[in-house]
Amino acid sequence: MRRHIGLGLTAFAAAAALLLAGCSGSDEPAAEQGPKENVKLTFWTWAPNMDKVVATWNAAHPEIQVTVNKQDGGDPAVTKLLTAIKAGSGAPDVMQAEYQKIPTLVSADALADLTGKLDQGTAGHFPETVWKSVTLGTDAVYGVPQDSGPMQFYYRTDIFKQYGLQVPTTWDEYAQVARKLHAADPKKYLGTFSANDPGWFAGLAQQAGASWWSIDGESWSVSVDDEPTVKVADFWGGLVQDGVIDNKPMYTPEWNAALNNGTQVGWLSAIWAPGVLEGNAAATKGKWAMAPMPQWTPDQPATGNWGGSATSVTSQSKHPAEAAKFIEWLNTSPEAVTALAKVSGVYPSDQPGQAAALSAPPAFFANQPDFYPKAAEIAKTARSFTFGPNVNVAYSAYTDEFGKAAQAKSKAGFTAAIKAMQTTTLENLKSSGFSVK
Amino acid sequence: MTTLAPERTIQPVSTPVRRPTSRSPVATAILLVGAAYCLLPVLWVLIASSKSGAELFSTFTFSPSTHLFDNIADLSAYRGGLFWRWMANTTLYAGVGGLLSTIVSAAAGYGLAKYTFIGKQATFNVLLAGVLVPSVVLAVPQYLLLAKLGLTNTYWAVLLPSIISPYGIYLARIYAAAAVPDDLVEAARTDGAGDFLIFRSIAVPLMAPGLVTVFLFQFVAIWNNFLLPYIMLGNDQLFPLTVGLSGLLNQGASQPSLYTSVVTGSLLSIVPLVALFLTLQRYWKVDLAAGAVKS
């Protein structure tokens, strides 16, 4: 009993200490450590088999040992990192950071600036648009790009043949094929509008030419409701309203079942789609093919990105120089890039190493020998897109608003959802204290 | 206080006096529906874990298949048997945490029931308020506290917060008040026994059935706890089953979720719980009756 009071007091004292220490916690020196002691780094990532890739590094670098801690993919790991940053301890040294999360992490002071710690030639390994996502257009460098997710269109060749469908090259054709297929068999859909996947929709908007945030000096602006995004939303709203495109989210057991039984005939996805298809619908092997995205302006082919991430060093790392050396090796050295592609199954952003690493098509697409050369051509058409510091707010507004609109199958609802996303994102940015134009 | 205690224990005895004359079919039907409601998901897990990855989403929900052992082998092979490490971790968290929590609850509950001291009622009220605060709410503050001590991402991060269970203390207090007669404590004290000896040799054996209940509650609570270890731990070698399995599902958009492994893992993770309940419920029942006779 008394013990309980005691514990309560300790907790209270600790809480008070926490408040006092709050201000001083973050400015821990990220300085160079004393010489020649073995450095231990922790690395949070969710890419499969990353420990095997890292084992190669550990074998060659006994003085810098890296431990991989596999995390839940995407948002959970970021939330955890931000909590650790706030708490002042507990963050890893190295962190996988999705491109859209980098501005958020930077504005929370979670990432270390690697300027001067990387090799001069590092930037030259990556396409300019990709490199821009780790610099955010500034002089700082907040990580080294690891993988990209250029979008393509995946479709079932057998079912296309069965119904005499042509692979759509424009969005108009996509709509026609969707209608034709659904008319021929009302159970089948060419695709689904997923209100659960804001990253997917952002990729589609990016393809149409949108860029939802932009920064001018210190002040941000938000343009979720610009013309390209509204065009994309209207397009999908129309298809969903007519019922020729499904309105159920992706990555549900129901969707998996639909991939298996052939009622989802196409998937607008990204370069990593073969792995997902193989995992969720292994029996459909050999029946899929990949094509470029349907286009808005056929003579200016474009695509968007869905997914992709960089490897960053956190602001809590006591060994930023060693960590920088490691992530540079991981994402630009030929042996690591090959291992990333072959063992970890990611699509490396590194341009010099990419072709060698991806010499054979993914096993699930053995029927399409030119899979990666074709994908590389498509990847070159990726448009640039700037993410802002409150992507999470915009994305959860997407899930809320489009969830309702897709459920209601109303085209007007889709347009309204875009407006609501814009308002929510803009208001949040202002109320979080960012300078906003 | 002395008169209150026996009354409490008598009450549960007086109700189950035999009256098995008429069984209401409505009640039976409701209970059957309830049983089906609880057991169907378990049946689903059992059947689903016998399916291969390809069958999981393509065959009829309740038609079993033959791949259970393949699935277990796959799961065991995942990253060098990490799943079994999670199982061992969970056992450690739940076993040690449950045990420590039971000891603390027993001591605190006994103290609250049998001693008079200033602020006793106030402490008990605070404790009652603690029962009402869901542990989920406390997870983030606990993280911030332990981060200050540098204990996050260690076994302690999950064990320490599990030790204090307001509900366990509350139960132990009720049980100590009912099961440990004041006269007995007085008699022992007259014979010269110290407080700790009385607690250990007289109170604890009498409270044993209640403590089994406290242990079971806490064990199950820790076994199923997700948020606390999820926030506290970054190293997947320290994960309990709940956090580990959720990681197999949330692989990020570019990787397929390992549904088959998760379903199989869920099945395996409830086996120890079922076994524990089957073995401990015997003591539970016997001792409830024993407590009743003594009063």
From TrEMBL, chain A:
Species of provenance: Kribbella caucasensis
Top-level taxon: Bacteria
Signal sequence extent: 1-26
Keywords, ordered alphabetically: Cell membrane, Lipoprotein, Membrane, Palmitate, Signal, Sugar transport, Transport
Pfam families xref list: SBP_bac_1 (PF01547)
Protein name: Multiple sugar transport system substrate-binding protein
PROSITE patterns for this protein: PROKAR_LIPOPROTEIN
UniProt cross-references to SUPFAM superfamilies, sorted A to Z: Periplasmic binding protein-like II
InterPro entries: Bact_solute-bd_prot1, SBP
Transmembrane annotation, as ranges: none
Automatic annotation (TrEMBL), chain B:
GO CC entries: plasma membrane
Protein name: Multiple sugar transport system permease protein
Keywords: Cell membrane, Membrane, Sugar transport, Transmembrane, Transmembrane helix, Transport
Domain ABC transmembrane type-1, chain residue ranges per copy: 87-280
UniProt family annotation: Belongs to the binding-protein-dependent transport system permease family.
InterPro entries: MetI-like, MetI-like_sf
Taxonomic placement: Bacteria, Bacillati, Actinomycetota, Actinomycetes, Propionibacteriales
Primary location class: membrane
Location relative to the cell: Cell membrane
